[in-house]
Design a protein that fits this description.
CATH class of the largest domain: Alpha Beta
Largest sheet: 7 strands, mixed
Number of strands: 12
Radius of gyration: 30 Å
Order of helices and strands: HEHHHEHEHEEEHEHEHEEHHHHEHHEH
Distance between the termini: 79 Å
Low-confidence stretches: 1-52
Length: about 350
Amino acid sequence: MNLPKLPKLMMLRGVQSRLSSSLKSQSVRLLASLFVMVLLLTLSLPGCIGQNAPTKTLQIGITQWPGFDVAIYAKEAGLFEKRGLDVEFVRFDNQQDSSRAVLRGRLDAAFTALWDILQSTPGEDQPAFIMVTNVSAGADGIVTQPEFKSLEALKDKQVGVKLGTVNHLIWLEALDKYQIDPQTIEIQDVSNEIAAQMMSEGKLDGAVLWEPLLGEIAEEIQGNIPYTTKDLDSLVIDGLISSVSTVQAKQAEFKQFVLAWFDLMHLLEVDPKPVFELVGQQLDISPEDFANDYAGLEKGDIEMNRAMFQADGRLPEAMLSMGELFEADPRHGRVIRDDIQINAEAVNQAIEIWKP
């Protein structure tokens, strides 16, 4: 049977209709697939919308010290970025200046010693101590000229100690250990670097120094190191401080910062070599030298922070002991703050969820 021929225009329209319907269906499926792929890619990329997006910024003051400088690795290797943070380090020559900047609202936080924040200017914003980075365990000590082999031998002698600084704390806890009256020893109020120079020139009988100067000067003058912070459970406790108002405003960011810090501490435990290599490169020193300097510290890992910040932890007791040492040698002329908040929120939250 022969069907009547349809006009070409009608045939073409029928074909176009079927093709149009088919193409639309394929286009919808293609667009849906592309949307899913783009969404998955977006969630997996750092810097995009997702769990690891670095959408929060923290400005952190930092001074040169192995327990702080190790954080350079966390920044350069992307540990902070993976935790959703953009961290900017601001360099300072001393911890008093960085602490002051925090309490004046110019920084979010700073690496500093608990001893230094006890002496920060009263009347500024209330300080909050929020994480422990390390405790000195041999990285700080006292070097003497060759003829002095003990701290007792320094009575009536001249020792280089920068009053009010962490060096003063190291000096006072050493004298307390050996029951030596601080008033029986004359102090030259000089910085770490100047004290090292004066020891080299024979102008001091002893000096409080930290590594690497401690070992270098002892070797140069063939002197003695009768005491280091390894000889006791030292009060030289370093950490991260902020202000109470900033902690309240940026609690989530500080939790992520602590998580990244625990990531770093884990790496130092399982594979420290890449950390020391990168930090050494950034500081223009050999990885071995930085590793040796860091070896004089106890790491501020989860176990240490848990012990420090738990309800009956060490921090409150340490602050009381520091106050007593201050009173034993008032030559520093400082007023001790009694309003430092020990804020465990970020540390406790991070400890609860951190996984290797």
